[in-house]
Each structure stands twice: as structure tokens, then as C-alpha cells.
Amino acid sequence: NIGLWKKEKNVNSTKDTTVMPQPHCAKAKRSLPVVPAEDEDGNTEYKRQLHNPSPSRLRSLATQMVYRLDEGKGRCIYFIGVEDDGCHSMLDYATISESARILECIARSLNAVVLERKMIQNEIIMGEDGAPLISSDKDGVIVETEPPLFGNGRLFNDQVDSNEIDKEDEKEEKSAIDIAKTIRKEAGFYTRCELTVQRVETHLLDPSPVSLSVLAKKSSSITDGTEETKDATSLPTDSSGMGNANGSVEGSSPHGLELSSESTATGRTIGETKTDSGNDEEKPVSISETLSSRNIRVAVVGNVDAGKSTLIGTLTTSGLDDGRGRSRTSIMKHRHEIESGRTSTATSHLMGFRSNGEPIGGRDQIRANKHKTEDEVARESFRIVTLMDLAGHEKYLKTTIHGVSSGMSDYSLILVNSRHPPTHMTQHHLNLCCSFGIPVIVVFTKIDGCPEHAMKTSKQEVFKLLRAPDIGKKPFVIRKEQDIATCAGKLHTLAPVFDTSCVTGEGLDLLRKMLFSLPKRRRHENKRNRPFEFLVEDIFNVPGVGSVVSGFVNAGELSVGANSHVFVGPTDDGTFLKTVAKSAHIARINTGHITSGQSACLALSLSKDLRKKLRRGMVVLRNSPTSTREFDAEICVLKGEGTTIRRSYQAYVHILNVRQSAFAKNIEIINNNVLGLTPSHGPPLGDDDDGIVLRPGSRAKVRFEFAKRPEYIRPGMRMLFRDGRVRGVGIITGVPESTDAAQ
């Protein structure tokens, strides 16, 4: 598609032009060169005029702009009102301004901005015989720089500069001579335009770029030379010279965006759009709110051949799989994962929905091979479902347990290969999710071509696991939309069951509707009044930025900036590092404020020596940082294979994002008489209380001690411990007296 526009250039350039009546012949009209002839290569493009472009023409223009931006390494220049041979097209201001508006809208849809918009007049004058001539008076040529309609990407210059005020005063005191040197917008004054387009980082854009389909509808309603055209090309600008980057784009997440000069009175802030509920009332919707209170986190677990990555790739890209791994390769992170087909890391992927439940397409409309980034999905979505792809192989069980423990999942998808009965890993994943109290949704995959007897056997085995006493779920097969509404509020007792195929698409629509209808289970917005607590899950060193930590905001709020002092730690010696949170990103969107319930990245101001002390499992706090090596927990030993726990028992402990070896320092039986514990739980004859033994089904209060380093632990956190396999779960009840660990 990149080179297709070259062959059709002459046809397309004449297709969108309107022949306007002029007092001279068409031959003379195109014989006055003002710039050198156009080169097919390079970053410069000539356009005579754009008038009522069709959707297919807009896509062609967008592809052409992508090529010019690539040729110019992110920057290109458009000459509007100029023929391919460099001659002046001799069109008036309204026509050129409307063409520039369309090109700027196309640029915004490609995550680019207009840096400079020059309008040039008086290059062509009329001779004594009435024929047009090139003006020899260079001083008489008028060159005026107009502000871009949607701003130039500087969204954070909110204050009005004193120089801007001086410029406004000067405009009011212009003399008649100055007025004569300004651009004339009446018909008959031949104009051309120079646009400089720059590709920028997407987080610098306003949250609602104009879609090409809506642009085509808007352009089709505009006629040349009418008052409507002038209104569309003269949108008001704000005080920062941005062209009202927030107000001049009016849109709704579900139905697209539309240009309107009336939207300047709405006063929306950056990151807000409106939802269309069938009336004219405007309801602001914040991206920050979408990524917190309307973000459902779903953990996807299952055996190694269940098709977890394939299902996530199919749901997020809105394209079916080819049966050879096309969907999974679009979301896998490492090369060895693509080659082996096995996921070894825990990754998150966003799936967006509009307010009417329609899923957001995961592929770019202009470049079919390009997937939408997280910020593009977040800006278009009313509701977000975060799908966490976890490893299924047994040797990656440690990574899977950590992903479930620290992922703050609202729900979990248990994937089962319909062609094979469930394995012991499926049982481990079910026990893991139920241990954390996460509702489960069972999805049978690869039903295309699956023998009927194999499907029947797999379902019987899975239903048997679900009805087991330690799981206690009743399977509920979803066959139609009414079944989704039936089990929506009963997921604590029911386990919805779906039959899907990523190759044929069977059952995927029902699964999407189920994901959209899931209510938010974890109410992190209720934790905003608590002290700020950020759980560090990964660490990066970004050139030009410094240390960046990614993780989850578990409680509180934080406004980043030069005065945002935080503590990060604990380090190996138990101390915390005092630093400054310079900036923050949510879904690759720059923000100045993060709140509980969001997955975010924080840029920290640390020296090179201090950067080496960062590790996964740390926390970022605003005040009162403490660390401890010991903690008390009430635990319950899970039923299963023979497990014996006594004093000095060592296990691997998972507490949210913390994972470290710990050993039991003291054990105390809870309600010994009530539980009717057998004598084997008590100490042998002649021994003291240190001989207490815990077996499956036992409940006890245990004091653990970390084996390697202190960690940040507080009462109320849920824990899980294992020694190869999950042995028990518990909750932190207390932490011994700890001192202030700030450094």
C-alpha cells in the first residue's frame, strides 16, 4: 500500500479538485512556478486541493502521509495549493484552509501534529492585460503563521505567557498599513499553504484524535465557498497557542469524534471525552477513571497446551487464528516463547469495550499489520479488561503463582484443552485461584475438529474437579446471552463454562459479552483515603529518564512532580531510599496523578549507585516506611498430599508482590478443642510445645522469619506458601515492633 499512491497520484490529485471560475484560462493558471517540482521520494508532498474526500481516499492520503513521515524520519512538509510541477494552483483562502484542516485531522489520526502552518499570499498578481503574473516585489508577499487547529503537542503549557498578552495588545493597535499586510480571506486572493507535520509520542496528544470515518462524514457536509467552510477552518484557539487542543475535538468513545467549534464552551480537561447516552447531555469520562474503576483484571491460567496466549491474542487483535500460532506470536514477549510456543513470563494485555459492549478492534485501520498500542486502546474504550497471560508449564509454576498473588485479579479464566482430559496442572490452577478467593470461569478451547467422545470425557473430568469439596463450584454451561445474565451475580457459587475455538470463532462472542458484563470485584477506589502504597513489579533503566519502576497502586493517591517526595525500599539492609517521583505513566499515557487500582509506571530520581539497589518486590510509600524480617500469620494447610509442618519448616512465601523463603519460628494451634485435632498434632510425650505438627486441614498461628532480607509487610495482606506445590494459605495478623527505616 505504501507505493500504491505513486501510481495513482495524478488521478487522485484531480479527483478531489473543484474547478473554480477565474478570469483567465486554465493553461495560464498552471504555468507560474513558485517552488521546485515535486520529487516522488523524500518528505515533501504537493497537494492542489482536498474536497469531499471519500473514506477510501482518506485511507490513501493517510498511507501517503505515513510514507512521507518515514522518509523524513518523523517529519514531513506539505505544500497545499501547488501543482506537482511546482506551479501555483491559484485557489482562494477558504479552499486552501479547508484542505489544510483535512490534512491536520489525518495527521492526528496517525499520532502526528502540525508544528507550523504558513499561509502565503500576493505571490501572484494580475498584469495590465488581465493575465496572472509572478510578483517581482518580494516585500509584498504576505507570509502569516497560523496556529494549528488541534495544537502542536504541548499540552501542558497551561499558563499564558506575558509575551502572548503583549502580542494581543499589539494586534489591537494595528495600523491600516499593518492590516493591509495580513492574510485576506475573501475570494479572489490566491493563497497557498505550507504545513510541517511531526510524528510525536502518543502521550503528548489529546485523548481523542479524530477518526477518518468521522472526518469523511464531516468533509462530505462541507461545500466550497460557503460560510460553513469558513466556520470549520477558523476554530478558536486557546491562550497557549495550541488551537484549543482539548475543546476543539468533540467526541464520544463509542461513536467516534467530530469537529465542532461549540465544544470550546464545555471546558473539558485533558484525558476526558463524553459518552453518548442518547441525548445531548455531555458526561465527562476520564481515562484515569477508565483504567481504575472500570478496569477488570482477569488472570488467564491453564495447562501448557490449553491455548492461553492464542485466546488472548484473538480477543485483543479481533482476528482469528490460523491454527499455526499467528495469534499467540502477536502478544509473546521473548524469542524463545515464539519458537517453542510456551509462555515463560507474566504479561498484561488490554482489551477495550465501548459503552454499548462493542469490542475495540486491535488492529490499526491504516496499517493493517500494526497493532493498536495500549494508549490507543485506552483512549477509545469505555471499559477495559486487562488479560494477564500466565505460564502453564510446570517448571514455570513459580512465575504463575507470583502472577496470581500480585496481579490483583478480579476473575480468572481456567483454560482446558477439549481434546485432552485436564491434567494435574489444571487442578493446581483451580486450587490456586480458589485459595485467593478469585471466581473462576472455565473455557474449553480447540473445539473445532474435537471428537465428541473426547469433549464429553474432558467435561466430565472438569466438572468433577469443580464439584470437589475443596473447590465447591457448580458448573453452568453458557449457551446463549440469557445465560450470562443468569450467572452474572452468582459467580461465588457458579463456574460458567464456555466452548470456544480461536480458528472458527465459535463461542468468542459469548465470551466477550461475559467479560464486558463482569462487575468490578475489587473496590480499590475505596482505598484512596489510605496512605499511598505502590507495589513494584518490574524495574527499567530508560535512557534520558533514569530509573523507572512499574507496578500496581494498591492504596492512596500520588501527584508526581518536583515536590513529590517518596520512599522506595526496603533494600537488603532494610532501609528505604528517599527520592522524588518525577513523572508517571498509565497505559503509556503521561499523567500527573495516579490513584489506587491503576497499573502505572513511576520515574524516580536516583543516582547510578542507588539504582543498583532497586529490585522487584519493593514498595513506594509517601511516609512511615517500615520493614521487618518477622511476621505473624494465621494459616490453613490445604488438603491434599501428605504435608507435615513443624517448627523450622521452610517454605517459599508469596505475599502480594513479595516472594522469599521463610521458615516457621513458632507455631500455635488455633481452637484445638473445637477442631478436635488428633493427638498427632500435639507434642510427643516428654517434649514441650515446640513439637507441634500441622497436617492437611489444620489451622494455626505461625510466626515466620524471612531467610534473606527484610520486607515491607503490614497486617491484612494475604499470603501463600509452597514447597514445590502450594501447601497452605493465610493472612498476616501482625508484625513485631519495627523501627523507622527511612534513609
Fold blueprint:
Elements: H1 4-7, H2 9-15, H3 26-29, E1 44-47, H4 55-71, E2 75-80, H5 93-109, E3 112-121, E4 124-126, E5 132-134, E6 142-146, H6 162-172, H7 176-180, E7 191-199, H8 212-220, H9 227-233, E8 249-252, E9 256-259, E10 272-275, E11 283-286, H10 287-290, E12 295-302, H11 308-317, H12 326-329, H13 335-340, E13 347-353, H14 374-380, E14 383-389, H15 397-406, E15 411-417, H16 424-435, E16 440-445, H17 452-467, E17 474-477, H18 481-487, E18 494-499, H19 508-517, E19 533-542, E20 546-555, E21 557-559, E22 565-569, E23 577-586, E24 589-591, E25 593-595, E26 599-604, H20 608-611, E27 619-621, E28 630-637, E29 650-655, E30 658-669, H21 672-675, E31 699-706, E32 718-722, E33 726-734
Parallel strand pairs: 1-2, 12-14, 12-15, 15-16, 16-18, 17-18
Antiparallel strand pairs: 2-7, 3-6, 3-7, 4-5, 8-9, 10-11, 13-14, 19-20, 19-27, 20-26, 21-25, 22-23, 22-27, 23-24, 23-26, 28-31, 28-33, 29-30, 29-32, 30-31, 32-33
